[in-house]
Amino acid sequence: MPPKKNAYVFVVEDNPDVSDSLKAVITAMGHQCATFDAAETLLEQGDLSQCDCLLVDFNLPGMTGTELLAQLHRRESCPRAALYTGQIDSRVREAAAKLDSTPVIEKGNDVSAILTQLSNMLAEAD
Predict the structure, then answer these.
(1) Residue 86 and residue 33: Cα distance in Å, rounded?
(2) pLDDT digits (tens, 9 = 90+) for 10-62
(3) Is the pLDDT of residue 63 over 50?
(4) CA distances (Å), 27 to each of 92, 94, 97, in order?
(5) What whole-number distance in Å separates Cα of residue 57 and Cα of residue 19?
(6) Does residue 65 contact residue 39 with C-beta atoms inside 8 Å?
(7) Domains of the chain, first to last
(8) Alpha carbons 70 and 37: distance in angstroms, whole number
(9) CB under 8 Å to 46, separation ≥6 — which residues?
(10) In terms of pLDDT, which residue wins out, 96 or 63?
(11) Which of 33, 52, 76, 92 could form a disulfide with 7 if both were Cys (CB 3.0 to 4.6 A apart)?
(12) 8: buried, middle or exposed (CB in 10 Å: 19+, 13-18, 0-12)?
């Protein structure tokens, strides 16, 4: 099944270059995208009822990506989500394992793995 068109994707990423790149590619795919520079910013400003999919950096300042997703799960307001990080290690795997099968994606020099996971999550959401 093809991914949902005109989905609303939230990206939580503290690196402005990565955030801008993801937003550009996501909007080029035909989706809307809102970016947040920290987990706390998403919690304060994001309307999760509008979010179809959430892409979260594991290593964020303040609250980590897994702490954010755990809080959203407790609130029962967590959309489909994926974590991404520069290097997947045992700490990342252990934290993600506590989040109900949240996929973890390793960042590379391009965003293709993240976009593939995004497409898969949006297709499952339909």
Answers:
(1) 22
(2) 999 999 999 999 999 999 999 999 999 999 999 999 999 999 999 999 999 99
(3) yes
(4) 28, 32, 30
(5) 10
(6) yes
(7) 8-125 (3.40.50.2300)
(8) 18
(9) 10, 34, 36
(10) 63
(11) 52
(12) middle
